[in-house]
Write a structure and sequence with these properties.
Keywords: Cell outer membrane, Membrane, Signal. It comes from Dyadobacter chenwenxiniae. Its main location: membrane. InterPro entries: SusD-like_N, SusD_RagB_dom, TPR-like_helical_dom_sf. This protein has 21 helices and eight strands. The protein is mainly alpha-helical. The strands form four sheets. Strands 1-8 form a two-stranded antiparallel ribbon. It is globular. The protein starts with a helix and ends in a 10-residue tail after the last helix.
Length: about 525
Amino acid sequence: MKKSYIKTIFSAVLMGTMVSCHDLDVPVTSELTPDVFPTNVSQFISAAGPAYVALRGNISVEYFHLQTLSTDEAIFPAKGGNWYNGAEFKDLHLHSWTKDHSTVTGNWTWLSTIIGTVNQSLSILETNMPEGTSKTQSLAELKMVRALAYFWMMDSFGNVPIITTYGDYSAHPNAKRAEVFAFLETEIKAALPDLSEVVDISTYGRPTKYLAHALLAKMYLNAEVYTGTPRYADCIAACDAIISSGKFSLEPASSYLKMFYPDNGPAMKEFIFAIPFDATATNSFPFRATNLHSRYDIPRGMVAKFKMPFTPDAAVSTLPEFYKYFNDATDIRNKEWLTGLQFYDDGSPVTVTTTKKGYDQFYKGADPSAPYTYQVNITPEVTLRQDVASFDVGNDELAWNMGYRNIKFHPDATSLNRNQNNDVPIFRYADAILMKAEAIQRGGAATSGATALSLVNSIRTARTAKAFTSVTLESIYEERAREFASEMWHRNDMIRFGKFENKWGYKTDADVNKRIFPIPNSAMLLNPALVQNPGY
């Protein structure tokens, strides 16, 4: 069911032409114009398609790197000079990024492209589509795609220009973060009545009322960060709109891990909104699963076929400061980590034969070329033993096995390239529950007989973890770390909980200006009306 729906989306967008846009003020153009297109139902669908293709764009690579590698959740060191990438990942870890940083620039470009593409699609459909429910719903859905992009932009860059008119190429100054927040709140509330309440395969991958409520809840939970004014009662109300709908439920332990497998999709009862991916499409979930894994991790079904290890091109590791939150031996979420001695599915050890120097490049014995066989052992610490300045752990077996790996988004044994079939959840039901718990803990009034403790324990029970007898903001923070590892929310959480200036790994920078990223230099050159963020 999942793949047939995704193929419908991808085949529809093939009728359209992908847009090109590297800044909010750069014209977004394609062969689709209100004068020549569209005129029938299939063409109306196609006109909306490019916005969803743009949404899929950078989410699983550059956006993941920006939100994850800038926190204590993950580190991406070089290995013998490989993956240094001009200090790209080092700077994210150390908080030493600049306005020319490639990942920062890539995210600004991607989010600007989504917004520009939506503006164009809205212009086309508003002009050509017949009046009626289908039109109002399509327009509301597109505006929610744009709202999601603007939320990510506001969260990452703070003050950004607000542009909603296709063909307006004048230089727009960036609006204050609080103004962007107010624009988004108005936009989402206006779209809500026209969004669908249906939650099934027919709406999977498209914005519904519940995405709107989830996005509002996330905004209200972070309102004090964005605007200086807390909105916890509003957060609780938005969460209640999701919880009371009866449309969603927590996955039990038996299916928790399956939510992130390559065959996930509309059957997942927790997915409020997910971005569909198909390994046969271009730029479909590349790197994400493979980079997070040890090169010796075995995808499901691979052992039975080949009895050989899977070898992705690199590995993003976690840090001990983050892994410490996985401290309950009964918790099903522990199984999303690759740690310690490795075994094949049949119980036999994963062994590698190399040389003594291949195992340890600093080996000083008289026989460096002698054969050496060892069982793969993933160790917790990440040590820059080759060179601290170049962020390098070395290029030997010891280096490859440094750092525990999160394997939540499991590699796809059926894929013949780096693309994956894993859909990416943006909002899950568990987030609505934990957002409500946190809002109550921060002073919001409890509703429907739920307390912060009962809400957190509902998550822990579903994940086979021991129930808490009490909760604090710290314990909620740690629960969010456990629940949403590798789902791109940790930077947002760290900032809200006042932890983004802490020390972890090799990072010591405590500059509060780093809570938002700089506006890229390329954007400033294209739009002289932009004002750079403080500290940059």
